[in-house]
Amino acid sequence: MRAILFFICLISSGGGVVALLPAQSSPPSAEPNAQSTNAQSTDEPALPPGLDAPEKTSQGQDPPALPPGLGGAEPALPSGLGGMSPTEAGEESEQESEPWLTLTHRGFFEMRAGTWLHSNRDQRDGSAGEQRAQFGLEAITDRWVGRLTLDLVSDSVATDHAIDLEAGDGFLDLREASLSFSPWHAIDVRAGRQVLTWGTGDLVFINDLFPKDFQSFFLGREPEYLKAPSDAVRVSAYHELANVDLVYTPLFDPDRSIDGSRISYFSPSLNQVVGRSAVVNSDRPEEWFDDDEWAMRVYRTFSATEVALYGYFGRWKSPVGFDPARNRAIHPRLFVTGASARTPLGGGVGQAEFGFYDSLDDRSGTDPNVPNGQLRALAGYEREIGSDRTLGGQVYVEHRLDHSEYRQALSGGAARGDRDRVVVTARLTQLLLAQNLELSFFAFYSPTDQDAYLRPKVSYAIDDHFTVEVGGSVFVGEHESTFFGQFEESSSVYAAVRFGF
Questions:
Q1: Which of 59, 208, 277, 425 has the fewest other C-beta atoms within 10 Å?
Q2: Is the pLDDT of residue 34 over 90?
Q3: What whole-number distance in Å separates Cα of residue 339 and Cα of residue 311?
Q4: Chain-centre distance of CA 66, in angstroms?
């Protein structure tokens, strides 16, 4: 089990120093003056009340009390001249009562059931039959933030319930276990298990070389489960010239790819669609700090346009290579450089991204067991086209390098890929009934492969906690050897109910 768990307890307290100024002295009392100046003069008029001596008046009555401040007890000094002001007292009270550790939690319970649209004896009966509980905990102090997110899963379709955190198998899936802190004011660090992502594509990834869970995605689970977790250290540095993200993964994190255990796939070696009868036995690198990965992003915003440069050094995330000596699928070495831009455009948002895939184990393109280098690019646009209605689209292109060498290296009966692959995507989202009802449709269509993948979904929020959902994961294709066409018999529909807390 590879997860980096951090548990740090930090106790801090603070105090305040209050300076008291010397108290002011009272003014001297005025003495009475009742003398006459000469025999002819009359008596002087009486002094104003409060300024004569504290003795009986000529009428025998007690004199009136002195005004406040001229006698008796002194009034309290004004705020700031002694003691603490109401604000200072409130701040000190708040500091004394503020906890050093703040805990927040979140999560949900979900039931999901699904069925295949086609009969396939090489797949399990039913596409989904699971109960899932996710628990998330966040611990916050003034020095660090700890996050823990895990899923407990009961899956009646799965055949193996042993825990495999890398493959996402078993009754426990650890989504996050990380610690974040700032060693300097311009640097943030997050270490441990975490979900990482960057790039501009909508469900299309070029420079995002972090692991994906295609099995969850093709079974119709929520899109959040397309992103598999990484065991990595991420360092983010911020400067007025540019911001930098550097991610180091000490042990290669592969995709949770289609292997035949739940979804059938096309086998080039067998030249047919297979499933449980031919589960892929991939060779996952297991040497810490030798089979590692590096990823970097440098980005900056110019006016309203964000541009970024990317770099990656590691391996192909899916087992797209093959080792005939061991009869096992492998992850060949890979180096990727790229760039992206996102900007407001015509009332919406436009984006573009580019990547050069350098297949280090077959730069000449002459090894049929290792994928050739590629150029990948996309351009997309999204905008609101009505009240709570959003439409977006993308064009994605893969260009295989050294294509003639690739074709010459293939054996006579092997399926041959084209030089170029084009995929067009469309997303339409409509919110109704005070935004409680969501109608969404996402489509992938490849005019070069003549295949498509459709994800229709309807969800309704009954209240702040309960949500119900129905949807589909539908594949169509002219040829079983194309990317989406190979999954045609794995098309499914599903229903789910979720309680969030």
A1: 59
A2: no
A3: 9
A4: 71
How far is residue 25's CA from residue 340's CA, in Å, rounded to a whole number?
Answer: 73
- The residue among 408, 270, 258 whose CA lies nearest residue 327 is 270
The CA distance from 247 to 234, in Å, is 4
Task: Please answer whether residues 321 and 359 qualify as being in contact, where contact means their C-beta atoms are separated by less than 8 angstroms.
Answer: no
Is 55 domain-assigned? no
Q: What is the 3-state secondary structure (H, E, C) of 313-368?
A: EEECCCCCEEECCCCEEECCEEEEEEEEEEEEECCEEEEEEEEEEEECCCCCCCCC
Phi, psi torsion values for 189, nearest 5 degrees: -130, 135
Mean pLDDT of the residues in the chain: 85
Within a domain: residue 396?
Answer: yes
Q: What's the CATH number where 429 sits? A: 2.40.160.10
Q: What is the pLDDT of residues 255-289, one digit of tens each?
A: 999 999 999 999 988 889 999 989 998 888 989 99
DSSP symbols for 265-295: EEETTTTEEE-GGG---B-----TTTS-EEE
Q: What radius of gyration, in Å, describes the C-alpha atoms of the chain?
A: 37
pLDDT reading at 333 higher than 90 = yes
* Domain ranges, residue 159: 102-500
Q: Is residue 60 part of a domain?
A: no
State the pLDDT at residue 412: 63
Show the tokens assigned to 277.
């009868």
d(C-alpha 170, C-alpha 438), whole Å: 32
Q: How many Cβ atoms from other residues are within 10 Å of residue 115's Cβ?
A: 13
Number of domains in the chain: 1
String of DSSP letters for 213-249: BHHHHHTT--GGGGB--EEEEEEEE--SS-EEEEEEE
- Average the pLDDT over 471-481 and give the result: 96
CA-nearest of 471, 19, 426, 399 to 202 is 426
298: which residues sit within 8 A by CB, 6+ positions away? 242, 243, 244, 245, 308, 309
Would the pLDDT of 250 be above 90?
Answer: yes
Cβ(51)–Cβ(67) below 8 Å: no
Single out the residue of 284, 277, 223 nearest to residue 251, CA to CA: 284
Q: DSSP of 94-131, one letter per residue? A: HHHHS-S-EEEEEEEEEEEEEEESS--TTS-SSSEEEE
Count of other CB atoms within 10 angstroms of residue 185: 7
Residue closest to 136 by CA, chosen among 195, 218, 213: 195
Residue 67 DSSP code:
P
Locate 42 and state its tokens: 């009359």
What tokens were used for 282? 């991939």
Is residue 7 assigned to a domain?
A: no
Q: Report the Cα–Cα distance between both ends of the chain, in Å, rounded.
A: 28
Question: Phi and psi (nearest 5°) for 252?
Answer: -50, 130
